[in-house]
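PROTEIN DESIGN WORKSHEET
SECTION A - STRUCTURE
LENGTH: 212
TOKENS:
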């Protein structure tokens, strides 16, 4: 499959405190232990699971997770770790994105989307609300939320969010000959040529129709 990178840069994300891969793995282990056993792991259980040579290493990871707002620790308890749910499960919803004619991507958070399955996707996941009907043939309806992984490259056939100059739109990336296009899934709309005025800002990884 072919990949294309559009020129230009954007910064429309509001990210949570980023975790290192090792911090994310420790957090995931804590999360899964609580989900499975209804109890957080002890410091020694974490050390044993990751083959850490000392509990001090675990405490360093836990301190980092506390500082970044993902957990809190109660004093004088052997199983003292508590997840901070609002930080762990929240994905920012950033304004609206047009699925018809492109419209300006508003750099304001409308709210937060809580999805258990995306807890450990990564910190570059965000949500945008769709307006317009140009992607109905791809199952993306007006007022849906599209979950987007921030990236500036995409493969042909993928559904992406792109900026056309300063306006955002969701379309499929297609190739015709040597040229790439942002293609709608509605015959009433015209494909948009990918040129120097088009910047890919993310890949659509899921569509949410109903949310709380």
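SECTION B - SEQUENCE
RESIDUE ASSIGNMENT:
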């Amino acid at each position: 499959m072919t990949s294309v990178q559009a020129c230009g840069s954007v910064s429309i994300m509001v990210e949570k405190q980023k975790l290192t891969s090792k911090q994310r793995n420790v957090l995931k282990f804590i999360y899964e232990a609580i989900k499975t056993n209804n109890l957080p792991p002890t410091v020694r259980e974490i050390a044993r699971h990751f083959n850490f040579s000392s509990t001090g290493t675990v405490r360093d990871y836990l301190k980092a997770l506390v500082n970044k707002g993902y957990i809190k620790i109660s004093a004088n308890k052997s199983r003292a770790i508590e997840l901070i749910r609002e930080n762990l499960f929240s994905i920012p919803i950033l304004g609206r994105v047009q699925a018809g004619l492109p419209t300006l991507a508003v750099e304001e958070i409308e709210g937060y989307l809580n999805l258990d399955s995306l807890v450990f996707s990564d910190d570059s996941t965000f949500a945008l609300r769709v307006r317009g009907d140009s992607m109905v043939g791809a199952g993306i309806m007006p007022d849906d939320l599209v979950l987007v992984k921030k990236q500036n490259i995409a493969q042909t056939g993928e559904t992406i969010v792109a900026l056309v100059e300063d306006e955002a739109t969701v379309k499929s990336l297609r190739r015709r000959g040597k040229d790439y296009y942002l293609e709608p899934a509605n015959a009433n709309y015209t494909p948009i040529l990918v040129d120097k005025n088009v910047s890919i800002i993310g890949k659509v990884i899921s569509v949410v129709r109903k949310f709380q």
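SECTION C - NOTES
The chain has a mean pLDDT of 80.
The longest helix spans residues 21-37.
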